[in-house]
Structures are given as C-alpha cells and as structure tokens.
Design goal:
The complex is a heterodimer. Chain A has 22 helices and twelve strands. By secondary structure, chain A is of the alpha/beta class. Chain A starts with 9 loop residues before the first helix and ends with a helix. Classes of the chains: A alpha/beta, B alpha/beta. At the A-B interface, helix 3, helix 4, helix 5, strand 1 and helix 9 of A face helix 1, helix 2, helix 6, helix 7 and strand 9 of B.
C-alpha cells in the first residue's frame, strides 16, 4: 500500500531507493536528530533501563489479562458517557467510523496523526464514500497533499525535502499570493498553520488514534508535539478514537512509566509537548469539548498473536527507535518496505497482520545486527522474531529458489566437517588471492549482490577453525 | 455473536484462559484499585525550593519562558508587561476560574480581560494550572466549567499561572492528587500535560516552534 509499493517487490524497491539521492539525503538527517537525540536523553536519565524493565513488565502483565482490562476500560468509557465499538478487522473499523460520520451528517472531518488509520486505510475508504478527511499533523498533511503514505511512523514526511514541500504548497494553496516566499521551513510551517486553522474550526468530526487507553479511568491518551491532535478532538462536535486493543494499560501510573520511555526513545525529548487524557464527552457546564465521544477498538489480527511466538510484538509503543537505528531502513527509507509499518517493527508486525504470503520478503530486510532490540524501550526481541518469520518462510517454500539452493549446499558441507574445513580453507585462500593490495574485493563470483554496493574485505590468515585449532583447542 | 464477544473470545482462546478465572480477576482488580507505583526517577525527589527550581529549569529547556512572582496580586502587571514586551495588544482571554477571576485586573487600566472559551480569534489566553511536574517542566491543566480547553490551544500565546506549592516532583504525585479531587477512577473530560510551546520537526527534521498550538508558553510561578 505504501507509496503504491508492495513488500513482494522489496528487492526492486530497495534498488530504486538506493539510486535516489534526494531520498538518501533526506533520511540522513535521522542520525543527528533522532539517533543522537535518543542517546542524549537516555544518558541523562539514570533510571532509563529500570524503566524499560518496568515498561516491559506492565505490557506483559496487561497482555496476559487483555480481555479483562478491555472490559474494565469499556465500563469506564460508558460510565463517562462515551460509546465503545468493537471492530474485528479493517473493514469493520471503516464501516463503524463511516456510520458515525453519516449519523451526524459530517461533511468536514479532521484527523490527528494515527498509524492505525493508515493500517485500516481509513482515508481512502472515507473518500470513496464522499468524505475527505484532512490530515492535520504537518508531516501527514504534506504527504496527503503528495498522495503518498508515511515513510516513517513518527516522521511521516522524513523522505521529503523543503523544496518539494514548497512546490506542493504552491500547487494546492492556489488562492495564496503566487509570489510569496516559501524558501524557509518557518514560512512553510506558518502557511500550513493558517490553512489548517480554518479546517480545525469548521470540522464536524475529529478522528484521532491513541497512544494509551487507560483501564482505570476510561481515558484515551494522545501524545503530540504540534497540538494538532488536541485541536482535532476538542473543536468538532464528535470525537472518534480508533485504537488497537493492545493499547490498553491498567493505570495512570503505568502510563507515567511508559510515557518516560516513549518520547526519549522516539525523538530524544524528555516529554512530548502535549500529552492529553480524554474521558468521555464534555461535561455539564463545560464551555467546550466534543458532545459525543466514540472509541473504536480494533483487533485486526492481534488477538491471534497472543500466546504465540509473536506476542511480545504487542508490547510495541510505536516510538520508531528500531526504525531510526536500523541500517537497512537508514539505507533505503520506509516506502521500499511496501508495508504500512516499515523497519524492524514493521517487518515483524506486517506478516502477523497481513499474512506471510503478502509480506514474504520483509523478514529478510534485516542484517540481524541487533541494534533494534538494543534500543527498544519495551525490550522486544525483534531479531529473534525476524528469524521466526524466516523459518516460516522457508518451511512454506516462500524462499527464492537460489537461496534455497545455497542453503542446501551449505547444509551438505556443514554436516560433513572435514569437507567443510577443506571448502572454507580453499575459499579463504582463493579470496585472499583475488583481493587487491588494500585487502578489499570489488567483485566476487556469486556475490554480486554484495559487491555491487560495497567492497568485501578479503579474509586475512586462516579460517576460524584453523585458528581455533592453532590455539590448541578442539 | 457480536464483534465484542468474538474479539474477547479470541483473546481468551489464544491465551488459553477464561474470563471468570478468580485469580485473574483478582490480579486486575488489585492493580486497578491499588494503582501500584512503578519506577520513579530520583530527579524530581527534592525539597520544595529545589523542586521549583528544577521545574523552572526544565520548562526553560523546552523553550517555555518562566517568571517567578511573589504573590498573586503581581499577576496582572506581569501579564501587561509580557504583552508590552512583545508588542501585543493589551487583551487577554481567561476562563471563569476563581483563581483568575479574583485577581486585581483593574490595576492594569489598559488591559482588556475577557472571559470564556476561545473561538480562535484571541491572541493571548491565560489559564491556571492545577499542578506542575518538576521532572520535565510540565504543567497540568484540567477542563471544567471554568476552565475551557480551547484557551490552551487556539491563542498564539498561552500564559499559565501555577502555584509554586503545587509543583510536584513526578507525575505519580499528580495522579494521586487527581484521585483525591475527582474520585478514584474518575477524570475531568480533558487533562492536558503541557511541556513547552507547540513545535514541529516534520520539515527536514528542523525544529520549529509554533505549529498548531501556541507559539509561545509563558509560565508565571507564584510563591
């Protein structure tokens, strides 16, 4: 779905991304802003690792009692005067939301940033039914104008540069002075603020996602920096929250713990600017706030992940740290994955939601270097789960024939130790001869996929097993 | 079967559990009523004077401007000065909160103070925070008949008054206070935790202030 690409064409998508210099330049910003930002923020909090343990434990406990916490959450929303809807899949969620919009005769709908609405394809569905929702997060607004999908879960327009944004604004905001200066990001931001302010004030329905659902109070919680989510949910008469079932946490204390992990892991902020708890519709005497409050709880494959090897993935809080630290994502950006959720978390989650047949390559879009797990605030063992998917892919014969042949050859050798030793010694000797003076190989037979993009360092000395034997160990 | 029962049924099947298991019910009831505290950073656990200093420092780090005032009666002059310094018209909108309504606004003859929610035309809104969190320089605002949420988001400038005595070290202290005021398990319609003025880094990862919410946040710490 992403940018019209599919996970099934990942190798082709990745090649195209590698040959796209503006894209590579745009995603290079991630190192200084998000990666270094996270490092600085986590180093400044001595309890960070203890908080990670606590966060993992909160989610693990919640998942084991998910049915009961969802029931508790529902009770509290009803007590506060809200309405709870249950959606088994994307089609359900879309139908329910369209139904609410139609019931109140909505013509104008605003949206806060929400990956879950991307997952169900809400915008396209509403549009097909005569309602065009307006994205209000600056990054989401930009990609909506461009007819694209997010290339990152927290920085949706990370692949776009400011010249492209200026061109889009000139094209779409055609009633503004064509001679206006849009050279600087500040003028782009000011223009978006002005245009969207009108949309906020005239919207009939506001749709947001949720970072947390609080079972103790029936609150939905959104975390934003721009304030767009708040304007989306307080100005229209109807507020709809779409959230997946694993967003529920027991108490406010549990929100506090995960909150301390979320912004630090995502952007390197200690706290995002706006963390807002919404509980039911406006109360008697309240001068503002929505008159109706709907929560749509979405399953869409998650209940089937409980109790199996992918349950841990449901701890994910969508901070994007694994994405920012992934050498594969950092080389190709998010659209190449062809899935709604890119990077390591996306490669684990997508096959669970869409099935392995529709997302077979994703588990291989990783070097298994382990950086994702090392920065994950919820300590999700992402590499282990990527391996699970690779195994399933192999079992189901979805692995390409060349790779299966390679694996068969390797197995043949690996189960015959003396033959294996001979083959590796020969290969090491041969590769060392082939290398240039700098010890780097620019071309290797059968390894064009590697050497096309980088050199292969030539082996120095003997194989691991000969070195091991030299040290007198067996 | 309804969607609700189907989803809950699938969850229970996957987990291999029942919805009426007494141990599970007791575990969730315990957590929801006892609300155990998890890890709380040492950073905010300070005596009151240092706690307020940390709050001021943390709020300043995220580009809020902060002023300390000796007493509530100094607020109108501080507001008028803020507007003058920024060449803003002498006009501010507030809710009907008694903590703001009872201030000596008439001492600032030029200052027009209007009351009610914002319709988006106000340049400056003023609210009273219920609490602050020193750990991150966060102010906590709750909605109610006298405290419109729109004042926190629509005006270009947001002035927030906070009593120094309500600055807590951590969020957990604020939650306990909310439970005392609104009852266990109950919340006002909207609770806003605000940490600095609105911002976006969505264009080339460049941090810019003033996205959709207030371009500036001015915190007046009283006492």
């Amino acid at each position: 779905m992403s940018g019209g690409l599919s996970p099934l064409s990942f190798p082709k998508n990745a090649r195209a991304a590698l040959a796209n210099p503006p894209l590579l330049k745009a995603i290079a910003h991630i190192e200084e802003t998000l990666v270094n930002g996270r490092r600085r923020a986590t180093e400044a909090l001595p309890e960070f690792d203890a908080l990670r343990d606590a966060g993992r434990d909160i989610k693990a406990h919640t998942l084991k009692h998910l049915d009961l916490y969802l029931e508790a959450f529902e009770r509290k929303v009803l007590e506060a005067g809200g309405v709870v809807h249950w959606a088994a899949d994307a089609a359900d969620a879309n139908r329910i939301i369209l139904g609410i919009c139609r019931e109140v005769g909505a013509r104008r709908v605003t949206k806060g940033k929400s990956m879950i609405t991307e997952e169900v394809g809400l915008n396209a569905f509403l549009q097909a039914n005569g309602i065009t929702p307006v994205e209000t997060d600056l990054g989401e607004y930009i990609i909506q104008l461009r007819g694209e999908t997010p290339s990152h879960i927290i920085a949706p327009a990370v692949h776009v540069n400011k010249e492209q944004v200026a061109a889009d604004f000139r094209r779409v905001h055609a009633d503004l002075d064509p001679k206006r200066n849009l050279d600087e990001p500040t003028s782009l931001l000011a223009e978006a603020r002005g245009v969207l302010r009108e949309r906020f004030l005239s919207a009939d329905v506001g749709i947001t996602g949720a970072n947390f659902l609080v079972a103790e109070t029936g609150s939905t919680v959104i975390v934003t920096n721009e304030g767009n989510g708040d304007l989306t949910q307080i100005l229209p008469k109807t507020h709809i929250v779409l959230a997946s079932i694993e967003k529920v946490v027991p108490t406010l204390e549990d929100v506090a713990t995960i909150m301390r992990l979320l912004a630090r892991s995502a952007t390197g902020q200690e706290m995002s600017v706006y963390t807002t708890f919404s509980t039911g519709p406006r109360r008697a005497g309240d001068p503002d706030g929505p008159e109706a409050f709907h929560v749509v709880l979405l399953d869409n494959g998650r209940s089937a992940m409980l109790g199996n090897e992918f349950e841990d993935m449901l701890r994910c809080i969508r901070c994007g740290a694994c994405i920012n630290h992934c050498p594969v994502y950092r080389s190709i950006g998010g659209h190449a994955y062809g899935s709604v959720y890119p990077g390591p978390m996306g490669s684990v989650l997508t096959p669970s939601l869409q099935g392995l047949d529709a997302s077979a390559h994703l588990a291989n879009a990783s070097t298994l270097c382990g950086r994702c797990e090392s920065v994950c605030p919820m300590r999700i063992p992402l590499p282990k789960m990527l391996r699970h998917w690779r195994e399933k892919e192999f079992e189901r014969h979805l692995t390409p024939r060349k790779a299966r042949f390679g694996l068969a050859v390797w197995r043949f050798l690996a189960t015959r130790p003396s033959l294996y030793g001979l083959a590796t010694r020969l290969a090491a000797w041969g590769l060392a001869r082939l290398a240039g003076r700098d010890g780097a190989l620019r071309q290797v037979p059968l390894a064009g996929g590697w050497t096309r993009w980088r050199d292969l360092p030539a082996p120095e000395g003997g194989t691991f097993r000969t070195e091991w034997a030299k040290r007198g160990r067996t | 079967m309804s969607n609700r029962d189907a989803i809950l049924g699938r969850i229970r099947r996957s987990l291999g559990v029942s919805g009426s298991d007494a141990t599970r019910l007791a575990a969730t009831r315990h957590r929801l009523t006892e609300t155990p505290v998890n890890v709380v950073p040492a950073r905010g656990q300070l005596p009151s004077a240092e706690r307020v200093e940390l709050f001021v420092r943390k709020a300043s780090e995220v580009f809020a401007s902060v002023a300390r005032l000796d007493g509530r009666d100094d607020i109108p002059a501080a507001v008028a000065n803020y507007l003058r310094d920024r060449n803003l018209p002498q006009a501010v909108r507030r809710g009907d909160d008694p903590r703001l309504a009872t201030l000596p606004w008439d001492r600032e003859a030029q200052l027009a103070v209007t009351v009610g929610p914002s319709d988006g035309k106000d340049l400056v809104g003023i609210s009273h925070a219920d609490a602050g969190v020193a750990e991150t320089g966060t102010v906590v605002l709750t909605s109610g008949p006298d405290n419109p949420t729109t004042l926190n988001f629509l005006p270009d400038h947001h002035i927030v008054v906070i009593d120094a005595s309500t600055v807590a070290g951590d969020y957990e202290t604020v939650w306990a206070d909310l439970r005392r005021r609104f009852g266990a398990g109950a919340m006002p319609r909207t609770v806003n935790l605000v940490t600095g003025p609105s911002r976006s880094a969505d264009i080339e990862e460049t941090l810019l202030l003033g996205a959709h919410g207030p371009r500036s946040l001015y915190i007046l710490v009283v006492g």
